[in-house]
Amino acid sequence: MLYGIVAAATALLLAAVLAALLRVPALRLGLLDRRQRQRRVPLSGGVAVVLATCGVAVAGDRTGLAPLGEGTGTLLAAGAGVAALGLVADAWRLKTRFLLVGTAVAAAFVVPYADTGVPAGVAAVGWIAGVALAFRALDHADGVGGTAGAVTAFGVAACAAAEVMDGLAVLLSVLAAALTGFLLHNWPPARVALGGCGALFTGFLLAAAAVTTRAGQDAATGAGVLFALTAVAVADVALVVLARRTAGRPLLRRGPDHLAHRFRRLGLTPAGATVAVAAAALPGVLVGTLVHTGVLGTSAVLWVAGGVPVVVLVLWRVRARVPGQGRGGPETRAGRGVRARQGLPPHHRHRPGRSSVPLVQPPRESAESPLRAPRRSASSQVGGSLRVRNG
Known about the structure:
Distance between the termini: 40 Å
Radius of gyration: 24 Å
Low-confidence stretches: 320-388
Largest sheet: none
């Protein structure tokens, strides 16, 4: 118990320090978020999370204070391989199918086929790879991937502790602490990003650990627990698929249609959208943990299974507004200035079929007058612009 607290505190501080130290090298190497147009955000946060998690876990195993065990050591090694694949994807553009195949190969080495059986083991491999990619997509805005990962890690760690898998529980606690230290630099506005390296590593460890804790138990209940633990990632993928299919856009084309983007359009601040995603992840994690430990019955998972489609449909159908377009927002003030210069009434709106040019044009000022300073061009920018990451 004491070592777990010390290990978590060490991982938190180590991840925070490494995220700050690796930021400058990532900027010099050009390891940046390609979807961030307003700010250059280095993708070094994931490397810090991986190094902190692996370093603390390996130190505990080597010193004998917290032995990982054979299965947990293999899981950590496979996660490091997935992280390396994600780092390659951050540096060079890799197609999603390569990431899916590479993650599935790593998952094939960690699934306990003796407890699950071959058919269920093969399904578990596909599920682990899918969850890893879902967490990569979940890292689409500042703080979202790290927050959802930390909340889920605490839940899966509680499940592992209930099964007396101490090494796995310590590993997941260290992962949650490392993500928390990373969030010190990733909270909006972010100075570093998780990237494919950290997102794939987090999703892979969480999914594989959840499969390990449920191995050998009832398959139907296990499927419900696994779904509940990762319900927020499933909801994000379902929302993106629904939005892009109905809009006729390719599934792999990036766009502002993830969970945090929808919350931002509802008027939430960047930090508020991050908190909203974490709040959406918490009920599923709690239900999954309580069902696994036997506190709740299996039927409780049905509430999560029914709530996910409702949330997806509401966020997909709701008529949202972009932050900054409300009363007194910066775009509203800019729009008033443009309308005033055009001689339009304050609340004029352009309608199809009607000309927005006033009937009486204001007199133009002479461009040759030396007493008049040149006008500055007005540009209306949407406050709190929507960011697209890991679409």
